[in-house]
TrEMBL record:
Entry superkingdom: Bacteria
Name of the protein in question: Peptide methionine sulfoxide reductase MsrA
Coiled coil stretches, renumbered: none
Residues forming the catalytic site: 15
Organism: Candidatus Scalindua brodae
């Protein structure tokens, strides 16, 4: 794999624990890191983020090989793992740090994201307006190590959280899986 061809995508979809696993399973995804972005505080910690006053959101940074998976395909995976109709919350998690955002790195990603959002809105599958933001990428701060690959480090806790938060129930209702 030619590392000069690796591209980045950054998505905020609520609790980053639940966003990392689906992307790690995709062919063409080289690596994922969970962290914080979109705010004004430098080098935020999880405790800072939880205050809801940093402007940051929990997010995932994805390194991907565009020869194996497209940005559009990553967006499809993003939409299938969130509720894009709730501002400043995802399932049980409430606050601006849990808002959904597509952070673009260039004009092409912006256009693809806007088209993807329009397509999702036209589908009507969620039955409500799509409120997911599209914003320019800014500094991405890697979260503390204990958050990385949480689904591997604490599988039982991860599964309880994913189920208890309402995320799984919503995905089953909307997507049938």
């Amino acid at each position: 794999m030619d590392s000069s061809k690796i591209e980045r995508a950054v998505f905020a979809g609520g609790c980053f624990w639940c966003m990392q696993h689906p992307f790690d399973e995709l062919n063409g995804v080289v690596s994922t890191v969970v962290g914080y972005t979109g705010g004004h505080k430098e080098n935020p910690t999880y405790k800072d983020i939880c205050s809801g006053e940093t402007g940051h959101t929990e997010a995932i940074e994805i390194q991907f090989d565009p020869a194996q998976i497209t940005y559009s395909q990553l967006l499809d995976a993003f939409w299938m793992n969130i509720d894009p109709t709730t501002p400043n919350r995802q399932f049980a998690d409430v606050g601006s740090q849990y808002r959904t955002v597509i952070f673009y790195h260039d004009e092409e990603q912006k256009q693809i994201a806007e088209s993807s959002k329009e397509e999702m809105a036209r589908s009507g599958i969620h039955g409500k307006p799509i409120v997911t933001e599209i914003a320019p990428a800014s500094l991405f701060y890697k979260a503390e190590e204990y958050h990385q690959k949480y689904y591997e480090k604490c599988p039982a806790r991860y599964e309880r959280y994913k189920s208890g938060s309402g995320r799984e129930r919503y995905m089953k209702k909307i997507w049938g899986k």
